[in-house]
Structure formats: structure tokens, C-alpha cells
Amino acid sequence: MEEESCVSLWTREQEKAFENALATHPEDCSDRWEKIAADVPGKTIEEVKDHYELLVQDINGIESGRIPLPCYPSSSEGGDLAIDGGNGKKGGNPHGDPGHTGKASKSDQERRKGIAWTEDEHR
User: Fold this and answer.
1) C-alpha distances in Å from residue 26, one per residue of 33, 55, 56, 118
2) Backbone torsion region of residue 4, taken as left when φ is above 0, otherwise alpha when ψ lies between -120 and 50, otherwise beta
3) Helix-strand-coil percent breakdown of the chain, rounded to 5?
4) Do the beta carbons of residue 48 and residue 37 sit within 8 Å?
5) Which residue ranges have biased composition labelled Gly residues (predicted)?
6) Which tops the pLDDT comparison, 100 or 113?
7) Each residue of 34-91: pLDDT tens digit?
8) CA dist list (Å): 53 to 34, 71, 80
9) Long-range CB contacts (< 8 A, 24+ apart) of 10-19?
10) Domains in the chain, ordered, with CATH?
11) The 3-state secondary structure of 73-102, one letter per residue
């Protein structure tokens, strides 16, 4: 049997539990990682910490411009597609086109920012 990779596979349910646990347990909590691992079925404290580090690296890459934002269809026709194209993989090129960089034009980026809600809309 091959050596286990450093990156374990995560189900959608585990990802969701991880996201919820991150939101529930603040950074200043002394036993944060133990609590998060307890909330994510089948994952150890070390796996949860590693997964968090990968998430931080992804965010830093996106914010620095090293990882391009994915291009989503502008119409609602593709609205039911999964963000990762259903392949369960992070990163990479979801279009399978080696010449496609995934960089959005400035107008696309402006459009994606959206308009802030008014106080009435928040009610």
C-alpha cells in the first residue's frame, strides 16, 4: 500500500462541519482545535489544523492574485453547478483549458463586488 498523503480527503459534510466549527469557536479559545476536531466527524486535531493551514494558504494566494478567481457563467443557466465543477478538487483549472487563466476582467470584478444592502433590506 502506498504512503498516505499529507492531505486527507474531506467529504462535503465534513467541509460544512469544519466551516461551522470555525465560525463557532473563536481564535482566542484555548482549546479551539480540540473543539473543532470534535465537531468534524472522522477528523483528528492534526487533520483539522492541516486543513486550516491549506485554507489560509488558498486565501492568501487569492488575495495576492497568485490564484485567479474562477469564472462563473453570467446567466442563471449554470447556477446549479458546484463551485468546483463537481470534481471535488481544490485549485487547478476548472475549465480544463490550459490557455485559460481564469482571470476576470476589471468590469467582471467590479460587477462581482455587488451593492451593499440598505438598512431596510436587512430587516
Assistant:
1) 10, 16, 16, 28
2) beta
3) 40, 0, 60
4) yes
5) 85-94
6) 113
7) 999 999 999 999 999 999 999 999 999 999 989 888 788 875 554 444 444 444 444 4
8) 16, 25, 29
9) 10/43, 10/51, 13/41, 14/40, 14/41, 14/42, 14/43, 17/41, 18/43, 18/48, 18/51
10) 12-64 (1.10.10.60)
11) CCCHHHCCCCCCCCCCCCCCCCCCCCCCCC
Which of these, 15, 77, 7, 4, lies nearest to 40 by C-alpha position? 15
**DSSP conformation class of 109:** H
Rounded to 5°, angle at Cα 111 from 108 and 116 = 155
Grid cell listed for 84: 468546483
**Does residue 69 contact residue 104 with C-beta atoms inside 8 Å?**
yes
